[in-house]
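Researcher: If convenient, please comment on what follows.
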Amino acid sequence: MNPEAELPKKRTKQFALDVLAFLRTLPRTDTTRTIGGQLIRSATGAAANYRAVCRSRSDVEFIARIGVALEEADESALWLEILIESGLTNSREAFRLLDEANQLSAIFAKSRITSIEGMKRRKAGGGRDANVYVKRA
């Protein structure tokens, strides 16, 4: 495993665990249950999909999977924003989780952009076909 991939792997898992703990602090209403369920799915989805990124067999697969992890992290940010802006919570933990969701989104977006640019350079340079280039772990 690439050591650079381990930190985001740990961060996404911790993010999911922190979201679960945070949601237990919210009042039990229909609204918080609904939004909380969505937030659980997106936060755990970001962690699960980043783990899948780490198992990518090609650049194309990596780019597709990191895109899904990015979508899940960004969706988590949306649900946290809704909880905050609707007044359902104003806790420091909600703001910290929102910051972490935004940081994870930025990391995944940059990684995706970097991979796309590298694939284009290899293809333009006459290297292996970018569609079958296998990433080194």
Summary: The mean pLDDT is 91. The helical segments are 3-23, 30-53, 59-85, 92-124. The chain has one domain: 3-124.
